[in-house]
Amino acid sequence: MKATAIAPANIAFIKYWGKKDEELRLPTNGSISMNLSNLLTTTTVEFSSRYKKDEILINNKIDEKENKRVENFLDKVRQMAKSNLRAKVVSENNFPKSGGLASSASGFAALTVAATASIGLNLSKEELSILARIGSGSACRSIPHGFVEWFEGNDSQSSFAQSIHPADYWNILDIIVIFQKGDKKITSTDGQKLVKTSLFFKERLNNIKNKIENIKELIKQKDFINFGELVEKEALELHAIMLTSDPPILYLQPKSIEIIQAVWQWRSEGLSVYFTIDAGPNIHLICQEKDQKQLVDKLQKIKGIKYIVNSPTVGTRLTKKYLF
Ligand code: DP6
Questions:
Q1: What is the CA(294)–ligand 1 centre distance, in A?
Q2: 240: part of which helix (H) or strand (E)?
Q3: How far apart, in whole angstroms, are the C-alpha atoms of residue 42 and residue 8?
Q4: Are 246 and 196 in contact (CB under 8 A)?
Q5: Residue 127: what pLDDT?
């Protein structure tokens, strides 16, 4: 049977960076995120005896390394379903493949839901999140709706993501400022392997549980200013860890710094905007919907950038549209 799923990418307010189990992708800490309405992956999967081997087409391209990761994931699905059928997978993003745009999160979330439906596995949301996590850690947060918490857990069964608020709970936006195209040089999987070499990492883990409680409380209270400040500090802490890893990882570019300084300038002028950054140079601007126009007016004056406006959205869902 053919099945198609649509999955959103997500932006983490408290980040996942580091694994205590590489293969199972068990994180060293929990994380908190929001699904993004305009970064979507659509994936159609069909398991059938007609296919002699897995046929995988992502964004109209055949990329050996990426396809291997998808094949390994399909093996896991086959193992769960006790099947040896091969599959055809066609997947498309509605956004450019750019540094740090979370394509593995939406990609593996869509693949999880489409592949399990196609092979006839009837999994709960929790089980889907666990399976997506094994494909790519952050993908487990794209399964549930809206604002999401990924529990660190101590084994595979206890490390999954759950919705903490629905998408329409809080009308904040993530406006992603994009200026770098193409793949980043160090993948987030590889970057994370270095996390323990940073002197700051231990200190981060000492504080992380408090941070997660704080951010959840600020979201609950819809306290945008304190929320934004914590989100920004968290992004800088993540990049401090990257910079102090051995060898160091530098994802930021001159344009990233220019945008960060612009955000601080705009804030000093009274515009309530904060930033966060993932494993790439592009900058995510977090603002309230009421300030969107003012912020977009400012962005339109900056040369050499594009931007994508995202509101919080639902999680991964099946659809009747098929890509083949
Ligand atoms: C910086 O989920 O891409 O975006 O599990 O190795 O596939 P793998 O890593 P990935 O890491 C995401 C890192 C991050 C922070 C976050 O999304 O929490």
A1: 31
A2: helix 224-243
A3: 9
A4: no
A5: 98
Give residue 142's identity as a one-letter amino acid code: S
The alpha carbon of 40 and the centre of ligand 1 are apart by a number of angstroms equal to 17
At residue 98, the pLDDT reads 60
Model confidence at 95, pLDDT cuts 50, 70, 90, reads confident
Please give the pLDDT value at position 100. 61
| Closest-lying ligand 1 atom to the alpha carbon of residue 279 | 1
- What is the amino acid identity at position 195? V
Q: How many CB atoms lie within 10 A of CB 309?
A: 18
- Enter the DSSP assignment of 322: -
Token code pair at residue 261: 């300084």
Among 170, 190, 188, residue whose Cα is nearest residue 35: 170
Mean pLDDT across 152-163:
98
Probe ligand 1: pick from 14, 15, 16, max atoms within 8 Å of CB?
16
Q: pLDDT value at position 183?
A: 67
Has residue 101 got a pLDDT over 80? no
The radius of gyration of the chain's CA atoms, rounded to the nearest angstrom, is 19
Ligand 1 pocket by Cβ (under 6 Å): 12, 15-17, 25, 31, 104, 136-138, 188-189, 192, 278-279
E-assigned strand segments in 94-160: 147-150
Distance CA 97, CA 238 (A): 22
> Considering the chain, what is the average pLDDT of its residues?
96
Q: What are the structural domains, with CATH classification, of the chain?
A: 1-324 (3.30.230.10)
> Using the 8-state DSSP alphabet, how is residue 99 labeled?
T
d(CA 276, CA 235): 5
Pairwise CA distance, residues 46 & 2, whole Å: 4
At how many degrees (to 10) do helices 64-81 and 125-135 cross? 140
Distances (CA, A) of 266 to 117, 177, 221, 323: 47, 15, 24, 43
Atom of ligand 1 nearest to the CA of 104: 3
How many A from CA of 49 to the centre of ligand 1? 34
